[in-house]
Write a structure and sequence with these properties.
This protein has helices spanning 12-23, 39-42, 60-73, 157-167, 185-193, 244-247, 287-306, and strands at residues 2-8, 28-31, 48-49, 58-59, 77-79, 84-89, 94-98, 102-110, 116-119, 135-136, 150-153, 172-175, 197-199, 202-209, 213-220, 223-228, 231-234, 238-241, 258-259, 271-273, 278-279. It is an alpha/beta fold.
């Protein structure tokens, strides 16, 4: 069979693309190399999302679950843990080759976010030694934090939001290497009003302990001291691998992201892109932006594949 559209990636952009494609009755396949949900479930599942329309606040994992359920309810075909290797031109269609087989489609929407990614490490002594023994890159559910001293590392929205979650149930410290946070003002105000201990302009020297993590050594100005810690959560960004994009024949920007036109079309006929993987002047990386781009990409894929009289 030949699909009307194959969406590569099942994060917010990919799932939204699937939802909009099915609303147009397009035969839709979503292929995800990891787990459905993308960064929402892989990096910060317990994080509260406060700026997605329709929700005063929603956990990232729950937002992902709702998008997933909606896509399934609309009968999107979704395949997890299947990696796309090639996007080839067929006689009258496109051929998507994966590690499990190949699929024919009229259009493709690339929505792989930041591609294959891993949390960025701090590369300080003890980080690897105590990984899984007190050092983590994910915040556990709140119930598991009770009674633990938590230290969060980072200065962005995710770090602050996770620190606020931890602070609701236990003693929490946030360590940031700069003198001010780069998060949204709303999150910074919430942080200031919380009981979280803030350690700014601080360099992390080591993670310490015997069998389990017991403390973190930091340097602040000329003072070196230990912060008693049962759980250290590192949230300083991600290291991504988007090398597959060039293998798919897509023109990239200097930042290594997909270059798109305002209608989300790429240099390849029938191939569109949306979400964090695309770049253009004024790009603002937010969940809601990715979803809006996905709707636009589907509209163009629909016009390309169905050729309605009004297009």
């Amino acid at each position: 069979m030949t699909y009307d559209v194959i969406v590569i990636g099942a994060g917010p952009a990919g799932l939204t693309a699937g939802i909009y494609a099915r609303s147009k009755m397009m035969n839709t396949l979503i292929i995800e190399s990891g787990r459905v949900g993308g960064q929402l479930v892989s990096l910060y599942p317990e994080k509260g999302v406060h700026n997605f329309p329709g929700f005063e606040s929603v956990q990232a994992r729950k937002l992902s679950d709702r998008l997933y359920a909606q896509a399934e309810n609309l009968e999107c075909e979704i395949r997890e843990k299947e990696k796309v290797l090639e996007i080839n031109d067929g006689d009258e269609d496109l051929v998507v080759v994966t590690n499990r087989g190949e699929y024919h489609t009229l259009t493709v929407i690339v929505a792989i976010g930041m591609g294959d990614f891993n949390p960025r490490k701090m590369d300080v002594p003890g980080e690897d030694e105590f990984f899984g023994k007190g050092v983590s890159y994910l915040l556990p559910v709140k119930e598991e934090l009770v009674g633990q001293k938590v230290t969060m590392f980072g200065g962005g929205n995710s770090a602050i939001e996770m620190a606020l979650i931890a602070d609701s149930v236990t003693d929490t410290t946030i360590v940031h290497r700069r003198g001010e946070f780069r998060a949204d003002e709303m999150n910074v105000v919430s942080l200031e009003r919380s009981n979280i201990l803030k350690v700014l302009n601080a360099e992390t020297l080591s993670f310490n302990g015997k069998d389990e993590l017991e403390s973190v050594t930091v340097k602040q100005e000329n003072r070196i001291f230990d912060i008693p810690t049962d759980l250290a959560v590192i949230n300083i960004g991600i290291k991504s691998d988007l090398g597959i994009l060039s293998k798919w024949g897509l023109v990239l920007t200097e930042e290594g992201l997909v270059k798109v036109e305002p209608d989300m079309s790429t240099n390849r006929r029938g191939v569109f892109a949306c979400g964090d993987v695309v770049d253009y002047p004024g790009k603002y990386k937010q969940i809601i932006t990715a979803c809006g781009e996905a709707a636009n990409a589907v509209q163009m894929a629909y016009k390309f594949s169905k050729k309605p009289y009004w297009a």
